[in-house]
Structure formats: structure tokens, C-alpha cells
Amino acid sequence: MPSIPRPRASRLWRFLLILSLAVGLLLAGLSLARPWAEDWLRAPLAAALTERLGLETRLSRLHLGLAGLVPRVTLEEVDLLAPGDHVPRPPLRRLHLDLDPLASLGTLSPRVTDITLEGPRLRLERGGDGQLAVAGLGASGGGKAGKPEALA
User: Which residues contact residue 132 at a Cβ distance below 8 angstroms, ignoring those fewer than 6 apart?
Assistant: First the structure.
């Protein structure tokens, strides 16, 4: 008995069904791994921010999610402390970091496309040398603290 070729529409539906199941399994796996990844990433991210800003950085919560189709890391209750200081400078309620996934994969390190701060009102001051500094952060702790380029 000769085999009857299946119509293309039937093969297309089968392919789409398998593809949707694979995407569903991937999304389910990511949603299950997200709480673990949030706990795992909190300490290295705080250490990287501490090194970059020259201020001790404490993070209460970290959330991974999407803003539309853009991956977003949200840090909540962020405290910045100068070296030897026990009182946080300007506490940040929320800090959103939007990532560029293609650039991040290409360089194997996170590439931030947008930063959104929620919480304090920051005041920029221009020093006698023309440099901008964030008022209240001071210049202690690594020389970069308080300078807007430290966030770049």
C-alpha cells in the first residue's frame, strides 16, 4: 500500500504545535528558575555596584522580569553607604536596569540600555573645576563617588 503524502498544512500545524510546546516548556522553566536566580545574583550585583560607585551598596530585593520585550533587573530598597558611615546616604526605593539582550550575549556581560531611579530627589552641583557631582554623596570612597559618570 503506497504512503499518502500529508498535505503541507498538516505538517505546518504539527510544527507550530511542537514549537509552541517547546516555548511553553522554556518559559515554565525560566519562571521556576527565576527565584533561585534572583537570590544567586543579589550578592555579586551588590559587590559590582560597590566597586563601581565606591560606596557600599546594600540590596533588599532583586527582581528579574520583562518590560515589554526588554529584560529588566529591578533592585528595591537600595542603600548606599560611604566607607565608615553607618547611615545610608540617599536610599533608593527602586532602581530599574533595562538590558540589551543581543549586546549582552555578544560581550558575555550585561549591557544596560536604560536606568530609572525611583525614590530620592538628587541634586547635581557643579564644582569650581566644572565637574558635576551628586549632592550628598561626597567625594569620599574611591574618588568616583558622587560623580554621574560613576553610574555609566
Answer: 124, 125, 126, 147, 148
Q: Compute the mean pLDDT over every residue in the chain, rounded to the nearest whole number.
A: 76
For 8-26, how does the pLDDT look when each residue is reduced to its tens digit (9 = 90+)?
778 888 888 999 999 888 8
Evaluate if residue 48 carries a pLDDT over 60: yes
C-alpha angle 27-32-33 in degrees, rounded to nearest 5: 95
Select from 79, 87, 107, 97 the least CA-distant residue to 41: 97
Q: Is 132 helix (H, G, I), strand (E, B) or coil?
A: strand
In whole angstroms, what is the distance from residue 50 CA to residue 84 CA?
Answer: 14
Q: Of the candidates 140, 152, 149, which has an alpha carbon nearest to the alpha carbon of residue 54?
A: 140
Specify the 3-state DSSP secondary structure of 53: helix
Total count of residues recorded for the chain: 152
Q: Which residues, other chains included, contact 52 with Cβ-Cβ below 8 Å and sequence gap of 6+? A: 144, 150, 151
Global pTM reads 0.56
